[in-house]
Fold these 2 entries.
Entry 1:
Amino acid sequence: MIHFLLLSVAMAADPTVHSVSDISQHFSFYMDGRFHRQYLKDTSRDVRNWGSLSQLDLSNVNLLLLTGGDERIPYDEGARRNIASFLDGGGTVLVMADGTGKSPPVAEVMAAYGAVLDDESAAKPLAGVGELEGQDIVLRRGGTLELDEQWTPLVLDRDGRVVLADRRVGPGTLILGSRGLFGQKPDASDPINDSWVGPLLVSRASRKAIDTTRPPRRTWAEDSKQAGPLKIEFHDGTEQFADDIVAVYEDVRPHLLAITGVEPSPGMIQRMLILPTGGGGFSSGVCIAIGAWWGGFPAKRYPMVELISHEAGHSWVLPYPEPLWNEPIATWLGIEVGRRMDMPQATRTLERQLAKARKLDPDFTKLNPMAKGAARDLIWGKSYYVFEELEKNHGPGAMAKYFQTKRRVLEPNRQAYTMDDCVAVWSLAVNEDLFPWFQSLAFDVDRSRTDLPAP
Ligand SMILES: [Zn+2]
């Protein structure tokens, strides 16, 4: 009965909009689902485009969401053609971009539709006009637009300059506005203008009928090549980075093997996705995603060594990540790889973090890093300190002893891995009870809370 009710509710709320959030020109965690959650979650089925925009199938889509893009990946001829034919078919395109500062690649696309992204900042307060008259308009910051007579202004700044507007393009609709009118936080906690953004988009997108019985599917990066056992995934815009990133991975991997003394956990690191961003990466264990121009790559190399080691490192600790230092240990692996590759930035990165933690806990004996609300700098710095001390006191190769012991003593399908378990494994690895030492560093760990044996 309950199942039936849920089903009928879901069907009654069948969305009338199929949207695609494009993250192929510039990836952000915000556009990877948070925009949809803020403005369209009840009205639209959204999928993300990870592949070349030129090849995106928009036949059963009525709303395409674009951001400014990145200069390293200009909107190419094929992408422009696809946008134009989507408009020809009655689709709606929202472009969120500003011309202030460096002009984004989408500005050139917009020029063909009679719009110029000015480099002049909008002056607050802003006001809705036409159908947005009387609405509250929030702008974080952003630029103004210069538009031909085809456009209808929707938001003006204090001086009457346009900040958001739309126009018909054949049967389609183009909406152009400042990026600052929309949220940006990766946790979706800033849904500014949500009283009108969603309804505006739905009213335009509904001009094109879609088949709601055929939900759209995510489009993945369509190009790939094999590098040994690793499948490298990319699209036309990120292809230029693929070989260099693979080269870094191949440099890094033997060092990770040496530091940890083991291979990645079985089944892990099968795929590596090149992301169109300079903003870092992520890992699911099986797939690691790497920001193509992170830290100024390929001109600068150390940040990429650290990032790849970090994301790959997650695949070494799984399926039992250490709770306190899951992130610090990944970056420490990157630092250690960098030191082994004689990169001076690695030592500087380590020392910077240790110094920040020493400001909070000068000899590392006072503050419990596992306490609720413990400062990030304390957690990271104290983790690094522990790894360095363990190597000093129990090395060489203390970390490898730990990884090897962890693989050996943890039974498959274990339910949890706590810091008590972690210290027990370290104790077995170095053949010495380390609970007193960790306690002397103010860790809240206790042998009685682990089922693992003493050395
Ligand atoms: Zn991480």
Entry 2:
Amino acid sequence: MKHEFENKKPEAFATTWEGQYEVFNWAEYLIGIPMPILLITTYKENGLPNACLHSWSSFSGEEGGHFCIMGGIPIEYGHTIKDITRNKEFCINFPSREIWEKCYKTIENNKFELDEIVESGLTAEEAISINAPRIKECFLNLECTLEWIKPLYEGSKCCIICGRIKHIAMDDEYFDENKKGRYGESGFIMNIHSPKNPLTGESLDDKLGFVEYK
Ligand SMILES: Cc1cc2nc3c(=O)[nH]c(=O)nc-3n(C[C@H](O)[C@H](O)[C@H](O)COP(=O)(O)O)c2cc1C
């Protein structure tokens, strides 16, 4: 049996933290789609590396290029939007489970006067084709140039950033499925963002998901 949901938050959805349904739409918790986890890296205005843990992106391309489409970037605050608007270049870095805790630390270290990559126990390295830092320990780095930025909808607090992938760096242990591989517990990490039961309001904890290749 299918339930139909009008454009209205289910009554059973209580607020777990203040402002929850302003930052995220209730539908994110209802549909519970896992999203790949990555870090967007840029240089701040003072030249220090910036890292933003992120999981609201997808990737698409055709003959003319391959692109990342990143949603959920606040327009009015945060280093990432300022850096991308100013530098028009950024890198997308995919971490594995091994370095997850360090990646999460970038949230605590989200300060203008810090090198957020080094402070979190990771290594910042120069990109090949753009002026943005890469995270050395990430198994896949996508060096991007800004294609366009748009608000999600008129009056939205968030924007969509489209980046053209200019250069790709990938660890050979990861493009070989006989070694570590891209899938399974050593590969791409998915964000399972507190899925909720719309009838009972029960919420599962945030968890990391891994893709099983079958
Ligand atoms: C799994 C996950 C968890 C996150 N948790 C938080 C959080 O607890 N607090 C927060 O402010 N941002 C959180 N974020 C969002 C950003 O990572 C964070 O705001 C970032 O440090 C902003 O960086 P910027 O100012 O350099 O753009 C989370 C993102 C992801 C993908």
